């Protein structure tokens, strides 16, 4: 399974704890979940792919749902279902609908995914001013079939899901209340700066699997989106890093583009970045200190063409650099100095399918004392070469205290670990919509 960013509902957070990478959801739980419970960052190595459409989450955490008093709380479009116990939601999904039904004025959550809807007309929404969440994913909506201004009138709208449609551009205008805008798997090839710049409350923008090129990012002031925490641009046609990202960003997904270089000091403008996913690009060289970001926890640069290692920030816990061209894991570059009062947090390195002929120097364990495993797997060197790496997986023997700590939140470590490695073998699928 390919990587993705997504929200883990509460019950899934616990499952995340039992995986090799439990630290990420955990960390996120501590630093972010409290203030902002909507997004989470998927533990991509968890085998949750068959969980693609988790049961509907009846409540957006952090969003207050008022239960107004109605005379007829059962008012509901005849095509749909409004649960008597949860009358603010209207379920119209999987019904082969071609038209959006009229939405009663008390409805706050509207589920229209998996239908044959081609158009979004104003009249369906005239009374629907209470809407907070609309799921129109998996329909057949084209940009020119969306009535002008239909969404902007919904001044309470917080989440808009339009993934898997036929949009060619971002709907415009959108209400400034919007926090989640999910537009993946469309045919979007143009970005109008006006469409997104004003969305100051937006925390999550997903544009993965569209047709975006570098030129569309010229003049877009992403930095106006002062609350943006997650930007997904995977599987587009980018050749450069997107410019002008807001300093609030914590998750950046750029997998499966054609980015070939990272400008000097690019990440200095992103001091909160926790996770960077750039696997399946064309990176050959990165500035050796490119990732000198004190917040970075996860770095995925697998499936590029990197020849050299680079500086590892202290905060980093998981490093994925498999399928590159690295011949030597130069520890002097990765760890130019050791601060005995402030050790690196690195626990896991995945470095299979490179050109290593020797394991990483043992000096590494002074610099990275928390290393638990290094996955060397197979290296891309001919089998008759003498210096074959013998150990596919290095596992450090943990001290009893560490072992206990790891066991506590991580009951099936070995099992999950092996599974995580296996999972990565056929990992080439990106689905950022697992929330
Ligand atoms: C919206 O529909 C998608 C299916 O495309 C589903 O995965 C997702 O959970 C739905 N979102 C919400 C918030 O219900
Ligand atoms: C909007 O509400 C008014 C007043 O309740 C009602 O007469 C009208 O039919 C509603 N329109 C739609 C499209 O639901
Ligand atoms: C933006 O978010 C803030 C804080 O949650 C809220 O007070 C404000 O009303 C939101 N803005 C809009 C336009 O909804
Ligand atoms: C990579 O992106 C291309 C389009 O740019 C898409 O066709 C392909 O499915 C993507 N691959 C993965 C593994 O997501
Ligand atoms: C990382 O950045 C800090 C300041 O932000 C600087 O002191 C340090 O030398 C840098 N390290 C490397 C390896 O560039
Ligand atoms: C490792 O990197 C340092 C600093 O760039 C360099 O001086 C040294 O020659 C490199 N060592 C190897 C084995 O490549
Ligand atoms: C440890 O290093 C980080 C980042 O390099 C720094 O922000 C922090 O203040 C350091 N802590 C101590 C105790 O030196």
TrEMBL record:
Annotated segments matching region Disordered: 402-435
Compositionally biased intervals (Basic and acidic residues): 416-425
SUPFAM superfamilies: L domain-like
Coiled-coil segments: none
Pfam family, one: LRRNT
Keyword entries, A-Z: Glycoprotein, Leucine-rich repeat, Repeat, Signal
Acidic residues composition bias: residue spans: 402-415, 426-435
PANTHER family referenced in this protein's UniProt entry, alphabetically: AGAP008170-PA, OSTEOMODULIN
Protein name per Swiss-Prot or TrEMBL: LRRNT domain-containing protein
Native organism taxonomy: Eukaryota, Metazoa, Chordata, Craniata, Vertebrata
């Amino acid at each position: 399974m390919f990587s993705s960013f997504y929200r883990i509902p509460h019950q899934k957070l616990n499952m995340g704890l039992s995986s090799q990478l439990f630290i990420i959801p955990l960390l996120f739980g501590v630093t972010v979940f409290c203030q902002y419970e909507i997004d989470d960052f998927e533990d991509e190595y968890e085998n949750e792919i068959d969980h693609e459409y988790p049961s509907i989450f009846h409540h957006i955490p952090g969003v207050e749902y008022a239960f107004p008093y109605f005379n007829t709380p059962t008012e509901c479009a005849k095509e749909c279902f409004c649960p008597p116990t949860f009358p603010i939601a209207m379920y119209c999904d999987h019904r082969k609908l071609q038209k959006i039904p009229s939405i009663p004025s008390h409805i706050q959550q509207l589920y229209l995914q998996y239908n044959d809807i081609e158009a979004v007309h104003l009249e369906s929404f005239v009374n629907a001013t209470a809407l907070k969440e609309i799921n129109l994913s998996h329909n057949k909506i084209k940009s020119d079939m969306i009535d002008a201004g239909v969404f902007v009138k919904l001044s309470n709208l917080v989440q808009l899901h339009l993934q898997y449609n036929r949009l060619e551009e971002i709907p415009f205008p959108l209400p400034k209340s919007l926090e989640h805008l999910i537009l993946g798997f469309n045919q979007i090839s143009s970005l109008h700066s006006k469409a997104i710049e004003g969305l100051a409350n937006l925390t999550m923008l997903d544009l993965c699997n569209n047709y975006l090129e570098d030129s569309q990012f010229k003049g877009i002031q992403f930095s106006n989106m002062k609350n943006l925490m997650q930007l997904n641009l995977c599987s587009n046609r980018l050749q450069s890093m997107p410019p002008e990202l807001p300093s609030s960003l914590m998750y950046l997904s750029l997998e499966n583009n054609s980015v070939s270089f990272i400008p000097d000091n690019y990440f200095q403008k992103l001091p909160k970045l926790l996770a960077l996913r750039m696997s399946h690009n064309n990176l050959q060289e990165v500035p050796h200190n490119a990732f000198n970001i004190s917040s970075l926890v996860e770095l995925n640069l697998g499936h590029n063409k990197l020849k050299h290692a680079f500086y590892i920030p202290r905060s980093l816990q998981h490093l994925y650099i498999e399928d590159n061209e690295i011949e030597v894991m130069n520890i002097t570059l990765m760890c130019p100095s050791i601060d005995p009062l402030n050790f690196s947090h690195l626990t896991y390195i995945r470095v299979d399918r490179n050109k290593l002929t020797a394991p990483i120097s043992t000096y590494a364990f002074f610099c990275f004392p928390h290393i638990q495993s290094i996955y060397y797997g197979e290296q891309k060197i001919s089998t008759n070469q003498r210096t074959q790496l013998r150990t596919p997986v290095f596992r450090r023997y943990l001290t009893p205290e560490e072992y206990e700590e790891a066991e506590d939140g991580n009951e099936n470590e070995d099992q999950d670990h092996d599974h995580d490695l296996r999972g990565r073998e056929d990992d080439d699928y990106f689905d950022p919509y697992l929330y």
